[in-house]
Amino acid sequence: MTHRKTRLLTWIFTILILTTLQGCGFQLRGEVNALPPSVSPIYIHGLAKFDPFSKDLKQILKEAKVQVTEDRAAAKTALQIFNQSRDRRVLAVDNRGKVVEYEIHHALEFSLIAADGSKLVPAQTVGTQYTYENPETGVLGKQQEENLRGRDVRLDLARRIVTRLHEQLR
C-alpha cells in the first residue's frame, strides 16, 4: 500500500470511530450537559451552606446552565441530597502492620422535586471510589494530594448527578 492510501484509511478509520463514539452518547469527562430551562432556578436541600460539596455542586449546576437559588419559595425545583456516606477500607499493610493503601468510597442519594411537590426524578444513588496510598514519607505532600483528590471526587459526584438529571429530564 502506498503512503497516500495508508493516510486515507487512517482518516476514514478515525472518522468512523469518532462518529460511533458520538452516536452512543460518549462525551469527554468534565463536560456537563445543559439541563432544561424548566429546572431553573433550583434550590439545593440537604447540604450545609458551607459544605465543600455544596460549593462544587453549585459550580457544576451553573456549568449546566442552571440558576441556583437560596430561596426555596422562588425555586421551580428542589434537588434533595440525602444519605451521604464516605467509607474507608484498608487494602494493604506493610510488614509492621502499618496501613499503606486505602480504598475510599463516596456515595449519596438524590432526587428532584417540582415546586408542586411532584417527583421529577425519583431517589437514586450515585457513588465513586478510589485508592489512596499512605506512605511513611512525604506526609505533607500526601495531605495536599488527599485534599485535591477529595475535590475531584466531589466534582465527579456532582457531574454524575447532573448527567443523571439530564438523561431523565429529556
UniProtKB/TrEMBL annotation:
InterPro entries associated with the record: LPS_assembly_LptE (IPR007485)
Pfam families recorded: LptE (PF04390)
One GO cellular component, as annotated: outer membrane
GO biological process: Gram-negative-bacterium-type cell outer membrane assembly; lipopolysaccharide transport
Keywords carried by this UniProt record: Cell outer membrane, Membrane, Signal
GO molecular function: lipopolysaccharide binding
UniProt name for this protein: LPS-assembly lipoprotein LptE
Species in which this protein is naturally found: hydrothermal vent metagenome
Lineage: unclassified sequences, metagenomes, ecological metagenomes
